[in-house]
Amino acid sequence: MKGQERLPHTRLVNLGVAAAFIILVLAYVTSIILLDTTGSSLLGLSLLFILCILILGGAWSWSLRHQLTSFMEKVETLVDNATLGREPNYNYEETLLSSIEHKLMRYIEIARVNGQNLETEKNKIKELISDISHQTKTPLSNIMIYSQLLEENLVHDEHALPLVLQVKKQSEKLDWLIQSLVKLSRLETGMISLHMVSSPVILAVSEAVSQIFIQAESSCITISISCEAHITAHHDSKWTTEVLFNLLENAVKYTEAGGSIHITAEANEMFVRLDIADTGRGISQEELPQIFKRFYRGNNVRDIDGVGIGLFLAREIITAQGGHMKAASVPGQGTVFSIFLPLC
Amino acid sequence: MPILRIENLKKYYGKGAQTVKALDNVSMNVEKGEFVAIVGTSGSGKSTLLHMLGGLDRATEGKVYVNGHDIFQMSDEKLTIFRRRSVGFVFQSYNLVPILNVLANIVLPIELDGGQIDQEYLNLIITSLGLQEKTRNLPAELSGGQQQRVAIARALATKPSIILADEPTGNLDSKTSQEVLILLKQLSVKFDQTIVMITHNEAIAQMADRIIRIEDGRIASGLTQAPGESRL
Hints:
The structure holds two protein chains of two kinds.
Chain A: H1 2-35, H2 40-83, H3 96-153, H4 160-189, E1 197-200, H5 201-218, E2 222-226, E3 232-235, H6 237-253, E4 260-267, E5 271-278, H7 310-320, E6 324-330, E7 334-342
Parallel strand pairs in A: 2-4
Antiparallel strand pairs in A: 1-3, 4-5, 5-7, 6-7
Chain B: E1 4-13, E2 20-30, E3 35-39, H1 46-53, E4 61-66, E5 69-70, H2 76-86, E6 87-90, H3 102-112, H4 119-128, H5 144-157, E7 162-166, H6 174-190, E8 194-199, E9 210-215, E10 218-221
Helix pairs in contact in B: 3-5, 4-5, 5-6
Pfam family, one (chain B): ABC_tran
GO molecular function (chain B): ATP binding
Keywords (chain B): ATP-binding, Nucleotide-binding, Transport
């Protein structure tokens, strides 16, 4: 800011100097002409001398300006390099440039360290979540086993049996929640590296469908696929399968018996689009923007079990793959979840 | 601190009984990194609002602060430089220079600003937008979606902190619109940019963090951020 303000000022000074220079020269010439004491040879010499001085002065000013511009350009590249974290250009030289660079590097270093500290703090929290989830796994599976044993022993006790079944159901829910949290925290901390390769999406689709097929059949829901074999996306097939399975599981859960689920795949300019359409109960317009949020549960699905983390996890996985996920729905008629995966 | 702050913004056209209140006392904030969609019927004042935000037009009354600077206090010259450095515009029409190839179109704003081209960043934008094989083509040889992607790349080239988009997908079919918006959103997350986008398409709602509805020059809804968007 200061430099910019000073700029017109220096221009004024330059102009003033030039004007004074020319006035002086003119005065000198006129005085020589007026005096006219020693003839024309001196006049010629003086003119030559003055011309030389003028040229010199011009050249000097030009070179100064040139130096200044080149200096500024150097500073600019220096700042650009420093912000991009490249190696310093003028390491420990006895120059102003080197000193500026050093100060700038120090400043950037401080900022970077601050950022890093924040990152470590964040990672610590994530690790804590991961640890908690991991440590609770064993006792939880014990609870599940014991509740199964209890269930077998209490088959004829009509008072205790419903209670035991509740315990079993709730611990299953907790187990799913913890598993999802472990996956999430691993995804977020980058502990899971996505293995991105170009592979046909039909593989992921058929794998996911085969996992859900029995469940769908027992609820009398038909699943149809229209996906051409040549459609390939740049993705991690294993994780895409997980997302698809998640969506299909939801679709089965919220679709009445006799309904249908249809999976469509199409390749566009930049993305492969996978649509999972069901004929389920649908989601209201007000709720649509909320469904991908962590622990969000729809108001009209309170009667069905769930913890509200599946869609959040699904979206995280797709986003990590450089894709996008969205939903559209007509309440009472069905929901379409769309997954966009990068083409290649 | 919000990156954009608007205080009692008014824009009136005409005088006396014929006064058209394009914007009537609008106040709002946009936080850094937010993706805000502005929806409303045509003539509701949404384009006027966007033009004010980008310093393309001056308000009758009220203030717009970008990064804490009151942009209407700036001289026209400063305002032009502000636009060139801090704001990236994407319009419905792509406004590409027909005689320049894709690469030249993208780097045009950098060259106008006399800055140096950061090749790494440029390559990153070009590959993220899938334009790496089209850099030597002329705009006329590209599809609408590709042209709009070039326009987005151009808007991002100067590393602006705010992207203002006025119906960026208005000329595109629904499939391509979807893809262009996904890319726009992904890039804004990647480079920590704030997007304010006008749209008539309610389906885009899900992509934005917040939807502001404008009716008759006033904000009808969407002043506060949707709750519950906290990350663990």
